[in-house]
Amino acid sequence: MKNGKMPNPNTVHPIAGYENEIYVKPTITRPNIIVGDFTYIADSEFESHVTHHYEWNGDKLIIGKFCQIAAGVEFVMNGANHQMNAVSTFPFYTLEGWEMDPPSPEDLPLKGDTVIGNDVWIGQNAVILPGVHIGDGAIIGANSVVGKDVEPYTIVAGNPAKILRKRFDDELIDLLLEFKWWDKKIVEINALIPLLTCSDLEKVKSGLEAQL
Predict the structure, then answer these.
(1) Do residues 56 and 105 touch, judged by C-beta distance below 8 A?
(2) Which of 51, 64, 99, 121 is the most buried (most CB within 10 A)?
(3) pTM score, two decimals?
(4) What pLDDT digit, counting tens, does each position of 171-184 carry?
């Protein structure tokens, strides 16, 4: 406990007196947005960062636990995509007065759900495109446009986002993916903080192996 308080995933403002950082989960109102405990955004609200998210497409935005989302990040959902297999890409069916039924799903370039893993850091003003899957522990550089899946514990940056490097060697990545610290109880995570924040990666490996 810090200052006599336990971490509470249902707290909206986890920094007393500061409104421009919130835990996202307790603020969600849309049924097709699912966010895990303790994921935060550097803003006073979250849902405006999820754009082109229309119920008729049925796509979900799924974000894991302990993610860190910087200011200006945008999650572009499938509603941004237009029909591309016809002469015109104009979405008549979405606009008032035009006599067009919605195209069949087969005629739209729908990419499926957007899925962000656990402990993912998304840098300022990054854009995540529809259907992208970002693995646990990945880092997305500021101003990146991510249109392809990102492997766990991989750093990507740029427009389009490209792999810069893996954060750790395969042995440590495998240990972390097996250990899943984010799924443990708050008391256990508190006890793990010295290990999770240790820069001696060999010591981290030994510590993880001892607890598996």
Answers:
(1) no
(2) 64
(3) 0.94
(4) 999 999 999 999 99
- Contacts of residue 155, Cβ cutoff 8 Å, sequence gap at least 6: 138, 139, 141, 163, 164, 165, 166, 167
Which residues does residue 76 pair with via DSSP β-bridges, in sequence order? 51
Q: Which residues are catalytic?
A: 82
The pLDDT tens digits of the residues spanning 67-80 come to 999 999 999 999 99
DSSP per residue over the chain, as a string? Answer: -BTTB---TT-S-SSTT--S-EESGGG---TTEEE-TT-EESSS-SGGGEES--GGG---EEE-SS-EE-TT-EEE-GGG----SSS----GGGSTT---PPPPGGGS-----EEE-SS-EE-TT-EE-TT-EE-TT-EE-TT-EE-S-B-TTEEEETTTTEEEEESS-HHHHHHHHHH-GGGS-HHHHHHHHHHHT-S-HHHHHHHHHHH-
Q: What is the CA radius of gyration of the chain?
A: 20
Angle 154-155-159 from CA coordinates, rounded to 5°: 125
Cα separation of 177 and 189, whole Å?
A: 15
